[in-house]
Amino acid sequence: MTATPVTAPTAIASQGWRRGAGPAAVESAWRRALRNPRVSISAFILLLIAAVSFGAPVLAPYSPTTLTDMPLLPPSSQYLLGTDDFGRDALSRLLYAGQISLGVSIASVLIATVIGVWLGLLAGYYRGWGETIIMRAMDLLLSFPTIVLAIAIVSALGISLQNVIIVIAIVYIPRFVRVVFGATLAVRQSEYVQSARVIGAGDGRILRTAILPNVAAPILVQTSLSLGFAILVETGLSFLGLGAQPPTPSWGNMVSAARNVMELNPWLLIAPSAAIGITILALNTLGDGLRDALDPRLRS
Amino acid sequence: MGRYVSRRLLLLVVQVILVATVVFLLIRLVPGDPARAILGETASEEQVARVRTLLGIDRPIHEQYVSWIGRVARGDFGTSVISGRPVMLDIQQRIGNTVELIALSTIVSLLIGIPLGIVAALRANRATDYALSSFAMLGLSLPSFVVGTIMLLVFGLMLRWLPPAQFVPWYVDPGQHLRVIILPVIALSLSSVAVVLRMTRSSMLEVIRQDYIRTARAKGLSGRLVILRHALRNSLNPVVSIVGLELAALLGGTVIVESIFNWPGLSSLLIAGVRSRDYPVVQGVVLLIAVLTVLINLLVDLVYGWLDPRISYA
Amino acid sequence: MSTKHDRQTRTHLTPGGVSRRRLLQTGAGAALAGGLIVPASVAASTGGRITFPPVRTQSADPTPGGILRYGLSTDPSNFEPHISTGAASGALKVMVYAQLLTYDDDANLIGNLAEEFGWADDTTYEVTLREGVTWHDGSPVTVDDVIFTFGRIMDPDTAATLAPRLADVESVEAGDGNVVRFILSQPNVTLPYVLADHSSMIVSQAWIEGGADPQTEMMGCGPFRFVERQPGIVIRVEKNPDYFIAGQPYLDGIDYQPMPDDNARVTALRSGAVDFIDYVPYTQMTTLMEDPNFVFASDSILGFGWLAFVHDMAPVDNLAVRQAFAYGMDRERMVQTAFSGHGAPITGGVIPEGWVGYAPDLEGTFVPDYERSQSLLAEAGLSPLNIDILSTSTYSVIARPAEAAQAELQQATINGTLQMQEWLTFRQTVADATYPVHVWGSSPAFNDPDFLSEYVGSNGFFAKQIHFSDERFDPLLTEGRQTLDEGLRDEIYQEVQALIAEVLPWVYLIRRTQGEAHANYVQGYAHIAGGGWTQINLRQVWLDQ
User: Fold this and answer.
1) Which of B123, B300, C159, C395 could tie B128 with a disulfide, CB 3.0–4.6 Å?
2) Do A245 and C407 touch (CB under 8 A)?
3) What is the distance between the alpha carbons of residues B81 and C465, in angstroms, rounded to a whole number?
4) Is A252 within a domain?
5) Strands (DSSP E) along C259-394, which ranges?
6) What ipTM score was computed for the predicted complex, to two decimals?
7) Element (H, E) at B91
8) Is the separation of the CB atoms in C391 and C398 below 8 Å?
């Protein structure tokens, strides 16, 4: 595994992606990446987590929100992870919480990807004052620590899952813009794009057919890495009480709620913590593997 | 160089003013009234209105903005509407605690991250490297609130090795102070250690593969000397830039770490300010954080250039 | 002017709402008449207050000395003596300042700065100050200081918490010697409770007018002197050697350490980092009660929660719908789910047993009857009822009953969706009345049934917020405030509560256990069922180490 820090994927873009990392390359890179056992295991784990989370309505033994008067039971054959401080089945909550954490992250990264990619394309393709405005705005967003920015926006918009999605999207848009901007700069003068222009293709068409496919690879890597960070932010906000609100379970608010009873019921803390750690670990490993496979510069 | 710095400083001022404006508006968008936070639960509407007048928050928003900017320009951050204390005083009393956390975490991440990164690079694709890289991956994947909470449980409650979440100022009891800072620093620095480790490893690998190192080796220099003299210095460059990014990340990370460990720093001041709609406190702290972040970035760019003369500041 | 003897007699007969029956029971009546302080060890425990363990070992002679380390649930926002900013700052203020009256262990009114107190006639209340009391700066506490204090409280610019409650006070005058006289425009028996509130601290006129900032400094005549505050770290007070109760306080000082995190606070107590904590989280109550090294002192009568309806919003403007809510909850089970059993259901009126106005006949009115709820809703064409329920996530004592209520109501085919907001946002939303239903919790503002005025009076804070008014309440409440006879008051407030149960401005949920915990070497502490002022007892605490 060749490592470049996942927190600075923008560095890769600024160093310039080689041309040829188009759709075909992405596909072959997938196959190449999956040959790495760590990547394939991660992908498998992620599929598993997604399956049990979104399959929670079928798989969960109990309702995640039904209260019983048997709070804080230890794990047993009836309640595999015991019950929480409201007497709810901790396992069922863990599964449903996965829906929230994964759903919020996927939705927010999708939004960030769509908006970020187009802003990056526009800035990189047209340059000029558009570039100045877009890139300086991104600098401004990046001049705040992520969590401070997220807290500020969530407080202003009000606490709801929808707003958490918006906030995480806003926080991650600059990263996509920078990646795509760098990659677009690298390909806009390429022969491929020049020849498209010569045969009279319009800007929209060039962006869609000539440039976008050629910047697909860094977008893909950025997306998989961003998913991990989105879960980090979502769980962090929930932990601080700014994310999913009770009785809706999320991994972050489960950790937070478990703190008051962790000495006697440590499993209530360990289970959601492990879920968070394993999910992010798998996403990061997958992202790393994809980048190694996609970045020709690092291929040896 | 001088022109570059002055242009950057100018940009910095513009950026900070923008941040100040955004924060000023944002905190006023948050529903909830500081007057209600000051008065008790059952304060009458007349009382709330009177306190709003006393605080000056019933004036048009542009008037409030102009007077606030004017005062900030003179270095006056105003007075907390909740505690009645000057915001500057609160910041002064707390900033040290936050800086201490960040500084120690940075030192820890460099002292642990760089050597481990070098080892991983020298042992590339061997068991040691795999172990270290896995550790780094784990460090990146565990959120600080998970690490912090679990450490509190294990070391604070179960083993009772370290005092749980009980801040003691250094001037009261230096030994105890050191003991209580251990867990927050670990929770805060874990991901930075991982990032520095990975960056050091990859840039070391890149440099080692380059020709002049081979040449130096061919000239008969011993392995360790080569690493120290040539490879390390040349591979430090990206590490410095990453440390800059990490400083900003650490600043954000203190929000969660200070809350878990009951640490009286800037972030807990900010969170308390947001909760009570203490406009002057929130504005002051966020402004300060923005200035610090921007300054750190500038500093990093300058160090970057100093380390790598090829970069010009035209 | 009445003679001293007359006043004492009247005081004894009409002690401003304190139950005569209870006075005789506890033997505190004599003390009340003379204005003497009853030592905690003498006062017997009465119903309603639960202290664990019930019998504590107390050495006969307090050992003076030592610093008490106090884990405080909130870093107090400021020290302003006349604005209530929560229990934490109240706990501090009662140590540094003194109000005219205070409460004994059984929540009976006793003199504090007052030597004697009582009604001279229907509209004149007289207080005789203790002789020779000095401020922490050494100057004497005078009648003028008291008059200045109430002038400050009643000045609208102070925005004092108690100002609305003093609306009936026409003037505060100096009498002979050390006597202060409150002249009322109409009878109001709640005045003594206002004088005992932790937001009616007597302040020094010279100190305030000398430009002191009462938000950041404290200078009173209480058992402890303010030393320093390091925000977020410590608030330090030291013994006042000239305190007006000879020998007290026993402690050399108190270090208040703010610990907003519930878990951290309990852990600090259990690991010996602090000796005393307030607001014990319900999750840790059982553990602390079972541990012989700690004492948990609490009550389950004061804090209560309710589910309120906005009365001009459909569908809760319909009484049948409100009734469906009232019968659609098993409150016994809610006590279990919300507070692990540390509380009590409210199945009738909200006035607790032992108080004037307690309504035994109402008990058991609101027991679960899901079928009735369903048929009430069905008749209104609203079964199932889907509705948003607003509450706040900031305070678990509000959030947990809200969660428990939401779960319970599902059995009555009321599908509530909880909307949890942060505290100040919640209060704004409640004030804006955007949601038809919300869950809130609080405790009586003082130990007299007139606290219900805030809830059902036409000028009541809570009533106005939910756009509730019913002209039947005001005459009753006024009568209650103006009646000195306790038996009559008992009837009046029972009627008020019966009316509440009938028209359902809201439905009550459950009471919560609330209390402090301390290490077993902390001696002499007793919990007073009264939140912010229970910490007055720290003046009689000593460390047996």
Assistant:
1) B123
2) no
3) 25
4) yes
5) 276-277, 294-299, 304-309, 343-345, 385-392
6) 0.85
7) helix B87-122
8) yes
